[in-house]
Amino acid sequence: MIMDKQDQQDIILCIPGVWQNHSALLQALLTHDTGYIYAGLIIKALASDYFAEIEEHKNDPSVSQVFRQQSMDRFSEQELQLIEQHQMVIYVICKAGSIALAQQALLLGQALLKAGGLAIKVETSGVTHLRSDWLNFDVENLFDLYKAFVPTVFDQDSLYSCGMHQFGKADGCINLKVEHASYVLNQFLLYLLIENPTLLENQTFSVEEGAEVLKLHKKQSSDFFEEDSLYFNRLGVWSLKPSFSLKKLFRFS
Asked: What is the pTM of this model?
């Protein structure tokens, strides 16, 4: 993939497809009545002024390999073989940085899958999706939108998100020792999307009344990713840490 820029405010979709060439992709978009027109390097919505750029590449075995490596039994062997037989790989470079722009990227991905795309990898967060799963995402459902673009990954100590910059938000991380760490982190990130709060250092967060209270600390994205990575989030990362409590330490009733 050739990129002349690495802009954190992009969503980049990698889509292997059945198209033999540029003309075949253009024709497929028209034949399937997708609501988009493709000219030159630009794909544009017919009903609005939304547009994105497309880079075209021939069959790329390394792309097929990524889908196989990240399958985790979600992709059937038949689906993986279809991906391996792709004629073309396209990279769709969409503007990002807000919920509205992420919604447009989701819709454009759906249109390209209907027109012959076989699967999707979100290059700006690393998550892969089955064709059927992406087509079933509801653009008006923020949880679906979050699932489409933001995976969580873990190392020895922490669980952290990757890709919230696509919405114009900071990412989050949490120590794996926190009870229900994955659930808590996902609820925190959805809270950022739904409520759009102004957060401050040392502010507290809990998923519900009576749940563990966690304190927020701001970290740099460079603690997790290289600055030239497509995963790097210039808005930083909120770390959720347990609040120190004597009661908890000594198990007072």
From this structure: 0.91
Instruction: Give the whole-angstrom CA distance, residue 150 versus residue 49.
Output: 26
Contacts of 227 (CB under 8 A, 6+ apart): 221
| pLDDT tens per residue, range 164-219 | 999 999 999 999 999 999 999 999 999 999 999 999 999 999 998 888 999 999 99
Question: Do the beta carbons of residue 125 and residue 96 sit within 8 Å?
Answer: no
In contact, 96 and 165? CB cutoff 8 Å: yes
Tell me what pLDDT residue 153 has. 93
Q: Which of 153, 149, 126 is nearest to 224 (CA)?
A: 153
pLDDT score of 54 more than 50: yes
Residue-wise DSSP of 150-182:
--EEE-SSEEEE--GGGGT--EEEEETTSTTHH
Write out the two tokens for 38: 């493709």
Distance CA 181, CA 184 (A): 5
Q: Which two tokens stand for residue 185?
A: 């982190």
Largest CA distance in the chain: 72
Query: Phi/psi of residue 63, each to 5°?
Result: -65, -45
What are the distances in angstroms from CA 152 to CA 137, 189, 220, 231? 18, 11, 17, 12
Which pLDDT does position 2 carry in this prediction? 41
- What distance in Å separates the CA atoms of residue 138 and residue 59, rounded to the nearest whole number? 30
